[in-house]
Amino acid sequence: MSxxxxxxxxxxxxxxxxAWCRERYLSLPTSFDAERAIARYLGAHVSGxxxxxxxxxxxLLDHRVPEGDVFLEILSPLAPIDLTRSHQExxxxxxxxxxxxxxxxxxxxxxxxxAGRRDRIGDFYALVWRDCDDQWQRILDPLAASLPFGAFAxxxxxxxxxxxxxxxxxxxxxxxxxxxxxxxxxxxNILQIHVPTGTAxxxxxxxxxxxxxxxxxxxxxxPTEDSDAVYLxxxxxxxxxxxxxxxYETGPDFWHEHDRGDGRVSVTLMRPDTTNWGYDVVISxxxxxxxxxxxxxRPDELVDLAAVLHNFPEKPKMLILDVVYGHADNQGLKAxxxxxxxxxxxxxxxxxxxxxxxxxxxxxxxxxxxxxGADGVRxxxxxxxxxxxxxxxxxRHDDDYLQLMADIEQEVAGLRYRPWFIFEDGRPWPNEDWExxxxxxxxxxxxxxxxVFQWGPLTFAHNTxxxxxxxxSKYWRIKEILAHGDRWISGTxxxxxxxxxxxxxxxxxxxxxxxxxxxxxxxxxxxxPSVGLLTYAVLPGVPMDFLNASAxxxxxxxxxxxxxxxxxxxxxxAISLKWQVDDYAYSIPANFQRLKALGFETREELVRxxxxxxALVEVTDYALGEIASLLSAVEPPLAGPAPxxxxxxxxxxxxxxxxxxxxxxxxxxxxxxxxxxxxxxFSLRRFRRANPWLRDTLMAKDYFDYLQPINGRxxxxxxxxxxxxxxxxxxxxMEGDAAESLDPLSLPIPQLAGDGxxxxxxxxxxxxxxxxxxxxxxxxxxxxxxxxxx
Length: 790
Known about the structure:
Number of helices: 30
CATH topology of the domain at 3-165: Immunoglobulin-like
CATH architecture of the domain at 3-165: Sandwich
Mean pLDDT: 96
Helix content: 25-40%
């Protein structure tokens, strides 16, 4: 049956939807209330044989487009689409269906459409309008449930009800129906994962299989391997953003069509294959999953991962999604109408939070995304949620919007619930004095819930624990954590801090006691046993570890879509060569194959090229032609493309990003993990999970200080008291010289008086026979003793 014969418009239902929309505006107290109600009907919804489509279309009013020139475009493939293929040519049938409008909203209800499911591809759709020159303009669906070819292509009609009905974690939700809405609280600790570098497969399906395998090993009482240990011992898994990101600035497009003129369209389809660290979003498509992360092309993979985590043996794991609504990349201007944007910022575009429709749609995007089965939400860059106050001529933080985000009620598997919330907010960042003036409590103090968390001061971006005096200089912040940190995320290793670490000038005062090479120094700084002991055994809050840091894999700003500024970005990232890549790593045949093919056969050759590039980017104010000419004139000649041209520079930049993306995958480092370190950190996580009271701030009878006099080293000493009276004494050598030997239990700390102390944990470099007494503590060494109450 042809598409024209199969599909029909339900005019009566379309008119009823328009009437309902009109009634919302007439009956609800505010326009925002109306927009929030209407937003639930935007996008595409499947119900039996019927499908409802809704779009917010103020651009049609801007251009004074009459209703007779606006249509719902349906595209149905005439041959099977294989979403696992990298390239294919498919013919589509196309029909245009009439729509109904009310002010800035456009609706259509149709029957006979094919909805996509896990095992089949559905029809594709968009809204189109015809201008006065008979040229067709397309409006994409920002609330789409499935975008197999990215946010800049027509969406797939998808049966979300079928996806939810097939969940295998329904018992997990049923067990929480004792009160509704259920409120998820904080976990004990968190593992942060970048999906594309988190497993060899780099997809959500691959990550789900990894946790499924780990779960089966636990069920069968199999021993824990070193490569297992870095994934285990966590109450929650937090994914870096899984939303659709930017696409290649100059192509190729993942959906490229040619109108055949006979009601059919020939479309060249490419499997999305961009690399991105996750934060370069275009806002459109935020309600679904980035197709790059989908092995099968089906959004069900995110539900599958949630189910595997929820069904994990011994204790379910929470799934936390990282959402980015504080900015849009400039590419977002091509995906959404201009009413979504409030002007440029350092990342791209500010969003127009004060527009009631935009405000409502962004919240609805969040609700639909979390309904995949997330238990928690981490909000990126909450300090960037701002609006312009004309009365005072200044930007104001939109704390009301942040409260609305935390208030959203989800419904999954019959359970109504509200997720646990984390806000990254370093206001007044990016002011120059932010490191001094930020309290990291701005959102906590404004939110109604008493379990809303923020990133703490040692978790925010600019932390460099591999520079001398870092820990002593941060002592005032540590004291704040001890006093206020029960609602902070703690730990120094995350996607932001590790990235910033790779950008530090290695000529600074680097703590060479951490390792013999820069790679060793960086790896140990962000996977440090004494820092782990401090974080897990002493500091309050919820510790978080970044998988790439725990696995001692590389990390950086990974984004291969740029054409205009790609060379500049690589120039800024090039310093990571000195921190994360040594001669041996570069020489491995599988590493940096693209750069080697361009002529950089050795690391030294690449380093020399990258020494010149950042300097020339700065002195020429990023004039690619001048940079290319100057690089071509270097004597002796540089390795790499010759002659150097702007096009060649862009090719080098793309090769760098693609090679680094592969190099950062944790699979390359798992086989070389230090068994003692991996298992020590695993034991710390198990200790924290067994002692959840450590999340609370220190009590008056607890103790924390550094040993004085300094004597060339920073050693922290802490005593914490459990609710049952048991004491835990921790000593951590954070940096500096070993100085003289000491007897930990003889230190002049009042809480240590008396007998009964037993050694509970020692960092890996301390001899296994040590039980107590005199010891010389070196950098990164630590001990924890415990004794029962009297």
